[in-house]
Known about the structure:
By secondary structure, this protein is an alpha+beta fold. Helices cover about 25% and strands about 30% of the residues. It is built from 6 helices and 9 strands. It has helices at about 25, 40-50, 55-65, 110-120, 135-145, 180-185, and strands at about 15, 20, 30-35, 70-75, 80-90, 90-100, 125-135, 150-160, 165-170. The longest helix has 15 residues, at about 110-120. The chain starts with 15 loop residues before the first strand and ends in a 34-residue tail after the last helix. The model is unreliable at about 1-20, about 190-200 and about 205-218 (pLDDT under 50).
Amino acid sequence: MDAEKHEPGRAKRDGAGLDGLTAEAVARAEFARLTQSDLGQVLELERACFSTPWNEKQFNLALQQKIFHLFGLKANGDLLAYMAFYHAADEMEILNIGVAPAHRRRGAGRRLLGLVLGIARRMGVRRAFLEVRRSNAPARTLYAGFGFEHAGVRAGYYTDTGEDALVLCRDLDGEVAFDARRAAGAQPSAATSENETAGAGRPPAGQRHNPPAKEPIP
């Protein structure tokens, strides 16, 4: 898939520019639950988005768990973005959101997160958790816009860089719509690497990931 690389001589698809789909085309993209048949595209997107990507075995093991859920946005059969999370009891832990580099800054991550949070509410989720790299400014802004608040820090959580993870959470009893004023007030401390997506900062591949915590982590 490789997210609309537009190789020399390749025809442009409807709604796409040289840098990817337009925001209007992203807004029309199909929202779907992803399955084993989508794993090839998920793996390609995973490698394009994260410096420590999960491998095929890890995704296969996750897909065998009933608590693991995978959703995405598709256009013309290509995967534009995906989101993975665990759901246990009335809590969810967002593992990651990956947006294809060619289609970033067009609202894909925002649309996908909003749709998934709405589904999570219907699944009985009352509280959402996630970890995000301290330096991942776009992700922190996105989550702030959806009402996620600081709950704690996991010092040195990311073994690839030793960077801290910020723990964010929010209740899902109220409205889950994006609020630009909340996002503008987030004022993250640092910009993200160009290689990282505006998504959750789950641990590097091979690092144990615990189920959602019952209380905010101090």
